[in-house]
Amino acid sequence: xxxxxxxxxxxxxxxxxxxxxxxxxxxxxxxxxxxxxxxxxxxxxxxxxxxxxxxxxxxxxxxxxxxxxxxxxxxxxxxxxxxxxxxxxxxxxxxxxxxxxxxxxxxxxxxxxxxxxxxxxxxxxxxxxxxxxxxxxxxxxxxxxxxxxxxxxxxxxxxxxxxxxxxxxxxxxxxxxxxxxxxxxxxxxxxxxxxxxxxxxxxxxxxxxxxxxxxxxxx
Length: 219
Prior knowledge:
By secondary structure, the chain is an alpha/beta fold.
């Protein structure tokens, strides 16, 4: 089984990362969370975890709302940024080609991404990925976002694949972390923000420059 990240791996995605973090922090401020230690360089899941811990420790916050409502508000906010990015995105040249090759080789494929279900489904349909996918896992299906391995573990469970026979293809260091935590192999492709040499420092099983280089590895 081969699972793919989406943003920066199968599609070029000009997501305004820092602006989205600032918007998240502002949203939490409005809901009376203490945000003085949060910055726009923190990971989304890290901010969510710290906010949830504040909620657990505060009777005042608990009396105002359930934390799941806050999480949903954050996810909806991120959806807005992702739909904005969709207007400028396009698939990488070899995306459909490699998915089609894997399908014809009877290798199960899927997407596991920190992006939201609504924008992801829009991308998958628009760029013709849908016929080749056996599973689509988004942040709406995860207990925690990558680098937490839950999304990958969930996909393997649904498709009845073992870590030993599974590979995750991603463009970032958090994809490598998630794959290692899920005990599966990882192929890092330098199509996103990281150069291939930078990815190699995190010891993926494979470090490649394009999706085309997956063919000799997988087929």
